[in-house]
Structure formats: C-alpha cells, structure tokens
Amino acid sequence: MKLRTHNIFQVVEVNASPSSIYSTLMNSGKHAKFTEMKAEIDATEGGAFTTCNGRNHGYNLVLQKNKRIVQAWTHRAFPEGHYSIVDIMLEEFEGGTRLHFNHIGVPESCDGWLTEGWHKVYWEPLKNFLEKKLVS
C-alpha cells in the first residue's frame, strides 16, 4: 500500500525550563492534567504510551532527559498499522525553552487537522499549564 505523507514542523516558545516541559510531557499524571485527557506513559526507551483518552499511542524510541523525545506515534485516524515519528527537541534560551517539533510521516489526509491539533491540544494547554505553575 502506498501512502502519501507530510511532515509537520513547529517551533514553540514556552516560559518554562526544559526539565519542566520534559517532565510534563513524559509523566502520566502531569500529561493528563495539562491535556485534560487520560494518559498512560512508560517514560523509558522502548516504553509504550497512550494519550488523549486513547486517541494516540506508540513507543518511546529515544529519550534524552530534558533535551529530546523521539517516539513512534500513531493516531486512531491513521491507516491501521501506520506509525509516524514525533521528534521533540528542547532548547533553553533566556526566558524559557524553545521546543522544536517535527512530526514525520503524517498521512496526507490527517495533515490539516493534526497540524492545528498540536497547537490546540498540546502547545497552548502546555504553555498555560506551565505558566500558571510559575505564577502560583
């Protein structure tokens, strides 16, 4: 089966440390809190994860604490058996962290809503969650 795919590349600046972002993304409880959806994450290389009430799941391929997360990632809307690669790099700069996000191999039919979804479901809630914690 041939499948046309696209890549999604986003850069997001968050007023929080790389360690805060990494732990929020890789901890089941924190992940569930900021997305307001169930998450189960085995935060080890080779460990499985399920997020967003079971919509997304996959495996951690590379974990460099506070620096990089690489995952084999799929969504229930993807063709059965198709995994994409999510690569998140965290770069500290004065004022916070620059998150470099590359989602490789997204089925063409999912590109539009998923590009928007990363911002709405992940980056905006993550920023709000971490920036509220800094204030409180």
Fraction of helical residues: 25-40%
CATH class: Alpha Beta
Spatial extent as radius of gyration: 14 Å
- Number of helical regions: 3
As a percent range, the share of strand residues is: 35-45%
Which short descriptors sum up this protein?
alpha+beta; Alpha-D-Glucose-1,6-Bisphosphate, Chain A, domain 4; 3 helices; 40% strand
Describe what you observe in this structure.
The chain has one domain: START domain (Alpha-D-Glucose-1,6-Bisphosphate, Chain A, domain 4, 2-Layer Sandwich). The longest helix has 25 residues. With 136 residues, the chain is α+β, with helices and mostly antiparallel strands. It has a seven-stranded antiparallel beta sheet, covered by helices on one side. It starts with a strand and ends with a helix. 31% of the residues lie in helices and 40% in strands. It has three helices and seven strands; from the N terminus they run E-H-H-E-E-E-E-E-E-H.
What's the structural blueprint in terms of helices and strands?
Elements (H helix, E strand, L loop, with lengths): L4 E10 L3 H9 L1 H8 L4 E2 L6 E4 L4 E9 L3 E8 L8 E10 L2 E12 L3 H25 L1
Antiparallel strand pairs: 1-7, 2-3, 3-4, 4-5, 5-6, 6-7
Helix pairs in contact: 1-2
Briefly summarize what is shown:
The protein has 3 helices and 7 strands; from the N terminus they run βααββββββα. It is an alpha+beta fold and 136 residues long. The protein has a single domain, classed as Alpha-D-Glucose-1,6-Bisphosphate, Chain A, domain 4 (2-Layer Sandwich).
